Amino acid sequence: MSSSADILKKIKDEEIEYLDLRFTDPRGKLQHVSILGDGVDEDLLDDGWMFDGSSIAGWKSIDQSDMKLVPDCSSSYVDPFYAEKTLCIHCNVAEPDTGELYNRDPRSTAVKAESYLKSSGIGDKSYFGPEAEFFLFDDVRFSNTMNKVSYEVDAIDASWNTDADLEMGNMGHRPGVKGGYFPVNPVDAGQDIRSEMLSTMKRMGMAVDKHHHEVASNQHELGLIFSSLTKQADELQKYKYVIHNVAHAYGKSATFMPKPIAGDNGTGMHVNMSIWKDGNPLFAGNKYADLSDEALYFIGGILKHAKALNAITNPATNSYKRLIPGFE
């Protein structure tokens, strides 16, 4: 569905109750507003929907709060978790007076980056394959008050619970520290929940391929198949959304926090990247490690701008607690 007419037809034919407009804030968090299906028309889908940008951290001041969500009709999917049938669309954020994409909107930045690549003549396609790991916990507690700062996480299948006195008994089947990579059940207790996560993604039309337990206790990963930058950014937001909601349905809490526990591996999001032109991969060549000059320049650019990139991609101190010798 790439046009507003397609969306309107789907709303009518499939008796969609709500249209959910989704966008990403500067912290990378997915936000949304739901509009009754009866109120959706071609003008809304083509021209956008006004909202208050001053209530989103890091965006507009209250005297300049008017902003516009412009739906990308090609990104639509039916939400698998809502009780009422709801069609979701990812949106770019635009200035209402000029229609220009807002320069602090992450999705709009991705759109501009893809456009710039083509206009530069360097390449015509870029592919991104993120590998986002996460932890699952059964109990999460934290406090930051005037008299106390604390946090505590727990999970029945964690390595530290080998001697826990559990109501149902303790079978002792748990991965040890750094021992979570690829054991079968009952040591891997996450098979069914990961399968439901991946199957849910497949039913939503996402391109996925695998799942497995990761190295640390309660650490997991699902496989997303690579795609273009903006498309894959949407897919990663859906990936996190599904994982959070399926985990919640199982009575668990999912986190993509880099280092929620000490003394075991942390979580990263490695991203496989490539640029293509006329069907040819520009990063393949005969230079260092069989790379091309373009690939080496690409790596050099990342290194040159690493500090600025880290301010966006790794803004919290917790990100750097992963960087301990012996823990990847």
| Helix amount | 25-40%
Q: What shape does the CA trace take?
A: globular
User: Could you describe the largest sheet, including whether it forms a barrel?
Assistant: 6 strands, mixed
Order of secondary-structure elements = HEEHEEEEHEEEHEEHEEEHH
Q: What's the rounded overall pLDDT mean?
A: 95
- Supply the helix-strand structural class: alpha+beta
What's the count of strands? 14
Span between termini: 42 Å
- DSSP helical segment count: 7
Q: Beta-sheet strand percentage?
A: 25-35%
Q: Any low-confidence stretches, pLDDT <50, length ≥5?
A: none
Q: For the CA atoms, what is the radius of gyration?
A: 22 Å
How would you describe this protein?
The chain has 328 residues and is of the alpha+beta class. The protein has helices spanning 4-13, 42-47, 106-120, 191-203, 229-249, 293-304, 306-313; strands spanning 18-24, 30-36, 49-52, 66-71, 77-78, 86-94, 125-137, 139-145, 148-154, 208-213, 219-224, 253-255, 269-277, 280-281. It contains seven helices and 14 strands. The protein is globular. Strands 1, 2, 3, 4, 5 and 6 form a six-stranded mixed β-sheet that branches. Strands 7, 10, 11, 12, 13 and 14 form a six-stranded antiparallel β-sheet that branches.
